[in-house]
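ARCHIVE ENTRY
Sequence with per-residue tokens
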Amino acid sequence: MNAKHVLNYAADQGAKFVSIRFTDLPGAWHHLSYPIEQLTEDSFEEGFGFDASSLRGWAHIHESDMLLIPDPTRCWVDPFAEEPTICLIANVVEPMTKEGYGFDPRSVAVRAESYLKFTGLADTIYVGPEAEFFVFDEVFYHNDQQGAGYSINSEEGHWNTGRNGNGNGNPNMGMHIRPKEGYVPVAPMDTLIDLRNVISMILADVGIHVECHHHEVATAGQCEIDFRFSNLLHTADNLMLFKYIVKNAAYAHGKTATFMPKPLYGDNGSGMHCHQSLWKDGEPLFAGDQYAGLSEMAKFYIGGLLKHAPALIAFAAPTTNSYKRLVPGFEAPVNLAYSARNRSAAVRIPMFSQSPKAKRLEFRPPDPSCNPYITFAALLMAGLDGVQNRIDPGEPLDKDIYDLSPEELKDVPNLPGTLDEALKALESDHEFLLKGDVFSTEMIDRWIKYKRENEIQPMRLRPHPMEFSMYYDV
């Protein structure tokens, strides 16, 4: 689709407005809306000016003027707007140079795909994320000087087995999901089938092909909706649109959806396993005659992921809450190993199909709180570093890592246990990200500074409710 096609599409849809979407540094979508008359062919070259000074992690006051340059290859009708509105995704560019803004996440993804082609190793990376999420009936939280707390509720939650309906029209029917027993049950235990159906149909309407949806392991509304893989940039765009649709569809049905990695104590958190494969001239490059049907390139790509994993999760698991999911001995893979089929390894080689086109790697530590443009780009850069430097991932670990003895585990490295540790790893290991100017030192420094000042420091300063139960009587 080009600029003329977009304008014709807008006319065919009777659009009255255009919503220009872009992503801030931490990974949230923002937009500006314009009357449709302001969208012209020149808009795709000249862009729309805006003030970036108030966005998280972005410009200072003295460098706040930016341009939004819409990408004409992706256009859809907003399914939640009352007035017909078409949506476009934009890159943020410097108004003087017309180059991608250094802290614009989508520009990082564009540079990553360009660098891949430049290396000559491959021309396409396909990415397929599995973004889990929770759907709750209500949530409230407060953080005041003299008190803090939160509460969530879902009719599916096992804690509602003793709820008394009190004749209020909401009787307790006794069908609740036990902790860690929520994986793919049928109705009436799974109460969200119809909502996921609605979400899937909306996704299809905006060009995202759903392959499967189901309830996930946790009680209280944990879900997964898988959509078809695509190239890095298109998949990152799809994930941003996916999260927007999930949240708004839930809201429209009187519920609330969250991609927070660990909202529920004592049950599974939400991960986002990332499937990856390299292709060149329409041919898959990860299929071969080595372990699990992998090529030598694929093994070296794994070596890069495992070597740089402590730094990668500063982007891929980027919140303090992420590390309540990434805990040794629980559901998330914190041990840096690879294996066929074994879901306790950080890198898994899916074995569902023997087709060379289906051969791929699954990196399991990421979660859906991440910025997909930055995360997918970082994963690619780590894998390419492995290929370029022939980094041997060692022998696969085909045992259940959680059942290994301390002696067997002593040589298996772990992921960092906190966001602060991950940021320190990124500080000491980021040269691989700077190749091809995909990332910049300034952007990495800004990321680290933002996370420390706006997320880690506030958590350090605030008393935790659990501390009262442990220490109030000291």
About this structure: The chain has two domains: 3-101, 124-471.
